[in-house]
User: Fold this.
Amino acid sequence: MSNVKAKPLPQTVKDLLANKSRILSQAQVFEDMGMIETAQPLWLAAASCEERLAPLMESTGHASEAALHRLSAASCYAKAGQLSQAVNFCRAALAGPLPAPTQKEVEAMVKRYLAELDQVDGA
Amino acid sequence: MPPPVLQCVIEELQNWHPRLFLEPHIVACVAVLSQYSDSPAIVNIDCHDIESERLEGGNELRLELSWSLETLEKANRLRVTIQSNPLLEMGSCALAFLLVHQLLRTDQLDVTQYGNRADYRFLDAQCVLEISGTEQHSELERRHREKVNQALANPLRWNAFVIVCAFSQDEHRIRFSFHRNEDSSHE
Assistant:
């Protein structure tokens, strides 16, 4: 590929990434197909994988990617309806090295999740 | 000189990307293509800054994509159960993943969720992949520009591959390009 080579990753991390990508792509497909309930446990499983991946990426010197996995965990938790977890992971991601426009997007995500959380609590 | 020809069977895609769940994308791709053409469908591919021996030094490729009767039957069923936009996006993803395997020779794709959208990045290069599809041929240029901007604004500020598919009665065309990120700060 006409590109900058990525830093190598340990095999355990590669395996976890592969497993997570398969689960996450399944969740995305089921949601696209309107099979929300089928997608639900897959979103949770994907979130859990992303949660484990973030510190592993950090410890291997991939700090930006760690933030990305925390964002993905947040998004997956939100899809699964676990909005408190989603907010926590957004905030954890914001502590990482994200470019300014992404930080703004993530701050907007936090606001949206908190508003949804308020609605759920108020119901 | 006519562009080189690449002959593929869409059902092989799942074997090429074992880390992704692609069966529905394969069926969606046939659901979109079979509205316009019988198997094999001809897809014209315009490449920009893509290094691949498949291109034989040029920038164009002619893809001849075939599918089985069984997949066609599944596609006919899928078309009535799923809305046209996700069908188009999933079908475009199938073609994009096919090109990634055939031209870039990698299956090292990671998928993450960012808000409501799926993001793809390569694990063997500091690069993201942006995919889109349209059934308006006149939209191809504009959509491609939009996706290049979106891809280069990725949170990692990595380089980007962009693949936009246009399906129509007249022809199917794909724009496949590579873009360097000027404010890239590789870790």
